[in-house]
Amino acid sequence: MAAKEKFLITEIVPHFFVWELKKMGFDVDEYAEISKEDCLKIIDRYSGLYIRGRLKAGKDLLEKAVCLQYIVRPGSGLDIIDMEIAQAKNIHVFNSPEGNRDSLGEFTVGALISLLRKIPQANDQIKKGIFDRNVNTGTDLMSKTVGIIGFGNMGSAFAKRLSAFGVRILAYDKFKKNFAPTGVEEVSLQVLMNESDIISFHIPYNTENHYFFNETFLQAVKKPFYLINTSRGKVANTRVIVNGLQLGKIRGAILDVFENEDFNNLTPEQKDLLDYLANSGNVVMTPHIAGKTHESEMRIHQILIEKIKQVKSDKKD
Question: Which CATH number fits domain 6-98+295-316: 3.20.20.70, 3.40.50.720, 3.40.50.2000, 2.40.160.60?
Answer without folding.
Answer: 3.40.50.720
